[in-house]
Every structure is written in C-alpha cells, then in structure tokens.
C-alpha cells in the first residue's frame, strides 16, 4: 500500500520544480542575450565593412521655397555619381517632390518630413539648416555636408567637385570678423562674447564632426533665436535705396553669422578653410539696375548666362577680407586652385541656357 507524500516532501518537490524552471529561464535568457549580442556584433561588423567598401558620400542639402527650378541641370550633374552622394531638400511644409513637381529622379521624395516655414532674415533659416543636417547625419556614409540654395548651379563635373571637397579634412566656411555693420547684440554676452562674433556666407561645406557640432548645439542657437530678429523692413524695399531710418534695418541676419560664430565659440576655427565654395556677386554699388541693389546678391537672368560669365567666376583664385586685411589664396591638395565650385543666383532660363552651351561641361570627368 503506497503512502501519500507528506507536506514536507511535496514542498521539497515544488521547490525543485521552481529551481529547474528558474534555471531553464536563466539559460534561455542567457541564450537570447548571447544571440542578440552576436547579432549586434554581426550588424556592427557589416556596417563597418559596408563603410570600408563603399565610398564616403557628400550630402547635398538644398534649401528651397517650393520646387527646385534648376533640377534638370542638377540631374545632368548627378548622373554617374550615384554611390557618392545623398540629397536632402528642405521645402515649405507639406510640399512633396514627386513626378508632378520634379523632372529629376534624383529629387523624388527627397524632402525632409519635418520642414518648417522659413522667413528670410529670421532664425528659422538656421533652424532649417539644422533639420537638414539631422537627417543627413543618419547615414554614416555621409562625410561632407554641402548647403545649396534653389538657385545654385555647379560649375564643374561631379567627379571634380567630389575630389575637390573630399581631398581636404577641413570644412569650407566663409568666416571673418564683423566689425562694421553692428549686427552683434550685446545682450548675447556673456554666452556669445563679441570676440567670437563672425560673419560669412550661409553656403558652407561641413565635415561630419562640424555637422554634429551644429546639430548638438543648445547654447548658441537659442541666443540667435532670442536676439536675432528682423525689424520691419518690407521685402519690396530691396528694390529701392536703403532707408535713412536705420531703425528699420535688419539687426542680425542669422544665416550669415550662426555657423561661423558657433565654430569660433567652440574653438574650431583651426579646422576650417575660411572661404566659401559658392560664388555670389555682392559688388553691386555701381549698378544702375535697382533690382540688382539691396539686401540680396545679383540674380543672373537669361541675358547674363554666357560662357564669359562662367569663365570669369571660374578664374577667381583668391578672396580678400577687408575687415581682417586678409587675402585668402585658394588651394586644394596643397596646390593653387580656383576658389568656387558652385555659383548663385541663377534663374531657370539662365541655367537652361548654360546647360545648352559649352559653358558647363557637367558630364566631363576631368576639368
């Protein structure tokens, strides 16, 4: 006759089952952790291998109002360089680059999905730049970040521009001391001392390190948002003489100061080539055309778009900075070179005229 197990024996059996269950759970958890670790290691190695086998890319960051009127010209430029570039476009909120709004496959669905309304002369412009950089940094292959407007054109072939930009470890940032225009707001001090205040072109080319500095900046950017605001200057005044009432002039223009000032603030000026790669024509004081005077650089129309114009821009080999008594002689790979790879501001008819002439030989591999 079998005896029933006593309470003590039953309790011992229950503890043994619990121990076995916990042991199996621990073993299973350890196995899952090991598999996850191994998977992560494999994926990391695959990513590193991909970065080693694939060429680094230039991220072309377009700031546009709506569509890109010069997309056909850029389409010719990008052909053949597909593995060496990325494209990101900041346009007005809700605007989509589809087959109805662009004639180039390179721009299809390349708009960022968190764009903002940009107002000229306001901090929203540099906020748009930060948004573009944030998206472009998600691709580890992007190693250079070139800002372009919707009126920019390339002056050389993709191969030439790629080699020019990638041959140096520095960023190209037009940056000089701003001692004349009084745009610095003393209220920025002491966060941004006046000795770090810089001015320059918005159209910079950044290394990945400097792009990360811009995106991670939560000190300088808020000061620009707070103190760099436009005073009441109607847009139509750009076609008229500057008003005598200086209280109606712009007091900052953030896009001409932010990146330059931030890099100076971070002590990184030794890591930049202090010039822009994008040409703009600002020497308009003698122009009789009112449209070519004011707050904006000259806009090149169809009649301006000649091989002579492009040749004159390509031949520039130095830039003089009056406030620093500094002449920047342009070089690449340690040798003298031309200064500019891009130019603005071109209308669509002007760009198409250039595309149909020999002025822009964008398909050539050597320039």
From TrEMBL:
It comes from the Eukaryota. InterPro entries: BC10-like, Glyco_trans_14. GO terms for cellular component: membrane. The lineage of its organism: Eukaryota, Viridiplantae, Streptophyta, Embryophyta, Tracheophyta. Its main location: membrane. GO terms for molecular function: glycosyltransferase activity. It is found in: Membrane. Keywords: Glycoprotein, Glycosyltransferase, Membrane, Transferase. This is Glycosyltransferase BC10. It is a single-pass type II membrane protein. It comes from Prunus yedoensis var. nudiflora.
């Amino acid at each position: 006759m079998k005896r029933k197990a006593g309470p003590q024996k039953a309790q011992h059996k229950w503890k043994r089952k619990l121990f076995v269950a916990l042991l199996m759970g621990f073993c299973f958890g350890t196995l899952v952790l090991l598999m996850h670790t191994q998977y992560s290691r494999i994926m990391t190695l695959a990513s590193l291998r991909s970065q080693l086998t694939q060429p680094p890319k230039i991220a072309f960051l377009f700031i546009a109002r709506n569509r890109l009127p010069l997309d056909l010209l850029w389409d010719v430029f990008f052909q053949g360089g597909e593995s060496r570039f990325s494209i990101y476009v900041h346009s007005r909120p809700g605007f989509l680059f589809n087959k109805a709004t662009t004639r180039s496959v390179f721009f299809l669905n390349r708009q960022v999905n968190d764009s903002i309304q940009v107002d000229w002369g306001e901090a929203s412009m540099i906020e748009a730049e930060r948004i573009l950089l944030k998206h472009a940094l998600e691709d580890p292959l992007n190693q250079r970040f070139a800002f372009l407007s919707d009126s920019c054109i390339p002056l050389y072939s993709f191969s030439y521009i790629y080699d020019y930009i990638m041959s140096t470890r520095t960023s190209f940032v037009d940056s000089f001391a701003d001692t004349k225009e009084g745009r610095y707001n003393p209220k920025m001090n002491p966060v941004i001392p006046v000795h770090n205040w810089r001015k320059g072109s918005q159209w910079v080319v950044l290394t990945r390190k400097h792009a990360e500095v811009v995106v991670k900046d939560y000190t300088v950017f808020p000061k620009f948002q707070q103190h760099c605001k436009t005073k009441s200057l109607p847009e139509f005044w750009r076609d008229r003489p500057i008003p005598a009432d200086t209280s109606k002039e712009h007091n900052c223009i953030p896009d001409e100061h932010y990146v330059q000032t931030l890099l100076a603030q971070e002590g990184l000026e030794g890591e930049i080539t202090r010039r822009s790669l994008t040409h703009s024509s600002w020497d308009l004081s003698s122009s009789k055309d009112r449209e070519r005077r004011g707050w904006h650089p000259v806009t090149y129309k169809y009649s301006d778009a000649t091989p002579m114009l492009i040749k004159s821009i390509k031949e520039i080999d130095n830039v003089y900075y009056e406030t620093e008594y500094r002449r920047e002689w342009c070089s690449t790979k340690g040798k003298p070179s031309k200064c500019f790879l891009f130019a603005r501001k071109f209308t669509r008819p002007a760009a198409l005229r250039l595309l149909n002439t020999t002025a822009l030989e964008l398909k050539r591999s050597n320039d």
